[in-house]
Amino acid sequence: MTRKKYLAVEPIVHFTLRLLLAVALLSAAGARAMADGDWIVLIGPDGPTGIQSVPQGSEGGDAELPKKGRSLKRLPGKGVVVGPGNLVSEAEFGDCQVHVEFMMGRRSNSGVKLQQRYEIQLFDSHGRENPTARDCGGIYPNWRPRRGGLEYIDEGVPPKVNAAKPAGQWQTLDIVFRAPRFDPQGKKIENARFESVVLNGQTIHEDVELESPTGMTPPPMGEAPEGSLYLQGDHGPVAFRNVKVRPLAK
Predict the structure, then answer these.
(1) Would you call 179 exposed, middle or buried from its count of C-beta atoms within 10 A (0-12, 13-18, 19+)?
(2) Are residues 87 and 12 in the same domain?
(3) What span, in angstroms and rounded, lies between the C-alpha atoms of 192 and 115?
(4) In angstroms, rounded to a whole number, what is the distance separating the alpha carbons of residues 39 and 48?
(5) Do 9 and 30 sit in the same domain of this protein?
(6) Do 3 and 93 share a domain, yes or no?
(7) In a shared domain, residues 137 and 223
(8) Are residues 14 and 61 in the same domain?
(9) How many Å is the maximal CA-CA distance in the chain?
(10) How many domains does the chain fold into?
């Protein structure tokens, strides 16, 4: 090839190489995005999205706890859902990272349930020494109904520390959850796990294996590879904001 012809072809070669490099970089970025997953916002600045049903009159711009009483006051605006009423995501998740911000009313009881089955307890238990699994941040125990109430059949898993804030303050909960695994015939071969649970910046659980769903036993729902996120709002006043889920690669 003569030098003249080479000079004519050189820009085309360089452009082609740059194009191939750009495509490779975009493909790598796309692969990472697919591997890491994107955050799916369930309650954001514009209010709830991707929730199966939102109780009428529960949306607001903020919440506050009056000096007297246990109920939370809903303030005008968007971005906050104030109970009562349970919230269930439309999407179902397997392995995932969850971020929830919540505010408890006085003596209130709530929970965040992965796949509607595995519960991190939310409770107004600030300042309580030696918290149990029924206090804020606990992995809720199994129980069975009995005449006149219920009977706990295990102790659940208490949080390592009591990181709960007082009622009426916004709190943060961050969870990394691993779903149970099943073989092609549907037999469970690996239990679900809370890989990590962080309450208000403090790690309260690490690598806790769950042999079965928490709560009532026999469980009302069998275990599955995926399930909806469930925010409990029927056991006392509670508010939620900035709720999002990020699917994780297995």
Answers:
(1) buried
(2) no
(3) 10
(4) 14
(5) yes
(6) no
(7) yes
(8) no
(9) 97
(10) 2
* HSE-up of residue 36 (Cα within 13 Å, Cβ side): 8
Torsion sign over Cα 240, 127, 124, 191 = positive
Q: What local confidence, expressed as pLDDT, does residue 33 receive?
A: 35
pTM more than 0.70? yes
- CATH number for position 116: 2.60.120.560
What is the Cβ-side half-sphere exposure of residue 105, based on CA atoms within 13 angstroms? 22
β strands within the chain, DSSP E: 40-44, 47-48, 59-64, 73-82, 87-93, 96-104, 109-114, 118-123, 142-146, 149-152, 171-178, 181-182, 188-190, 192-199, 202-210, 215-216, 227-232, 238-247
96: CB partners within 8 A, 6+ apart: 37, 114, 176, 177, 179, 245, 246, 247, 248
Each residue's pLDDT tens digit, 169-191: 999 999 999 999 999 999 999 99
The first and second tokens of residue 9, run together, are 């072809």
**What domain range includes position 103?**
39-247
Q: Do 196 and 224 fall within a single domain?
A: yes
Distance of CA 23 to CAs 15, 26, 28, 29, 145, Å?
A: 12, 5, 9, 10, 59
Band (pLDDT 50/70/90 cuts) for residue 152 is: confident
